[in-house]
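Let us work through a complete example step by step.
Step 1: write down the sequence.
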Amino acid sequence: MTVMEISNLKKSYTPGKLAVNDVSLSIQQGESLGLVGESGCGKSTLARCLLGVEKIDGGSIIYNNTPLANANRKEFRDYRRNVQTVFQNPTAALNPKLKIKGSLLDPYLQFQRELELEHFTFSSKQGFVEQLLEAVELPKELGDRYPHELSGGQKQRVTIARAISIEPKLIILDEPTASLDVLSQGAVLELLSSLQKMLGMSYLFISHDLAAVYQLCQRIAVMKDGELLDIFQKEDIYDNSRHAYTKELISIF
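Step 2: predict the structure and record it as tokens.
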């Protein structure tokens, strides 16, 4: 089953120069699709378009058989609920004035009327927060702390917990390990893998790190200068048919 279909997507910031140039991708239910490329290639711009932060100049984003551009208010709200994100910088993603439990409760409180959770149970605010912290392997005591009292790895686990709290169909992970040390990077990738198996979500994992993408994802797409150059199953990474730029990335992999 296709969760999201991206067709011929275009986005420009300056006339005559496309930041995203005719990109087409599909994301299947329960899969991790990795999007890899050097900084400035258009990966994060694509992510912002998918999140509705940026308006697209052409093409379409189709979710649940409905083009996002044609979605009514109810359909767009359903999209917002089912497409969550984890950004590179967890410090910037968390409100410094809110305790961790406040950040974790916010998505549920926004969408509680539409929610039918399968894996988490909301019987009380405290109990719900403790379930989420346990899911990302953090002690329940952290719910009463502020973001500045946590390490970078802990804060990123909190943003992951917030993203999974309403059991979305897709999480867009935009360089989620880039700001972490090597040990924390590996641990977060393992956590993301186990959460995907538990919750049956799809990931679009955006990174400049091919090794991280290879570890987490079943399919890999390669971008350069706004264009999608290559897309393949992970096991085909060393196939001779790979694009020359993909081979260049592999050489430093």
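Step 3: interpret the result. The two ends are 31 Å apart (CA to CA).
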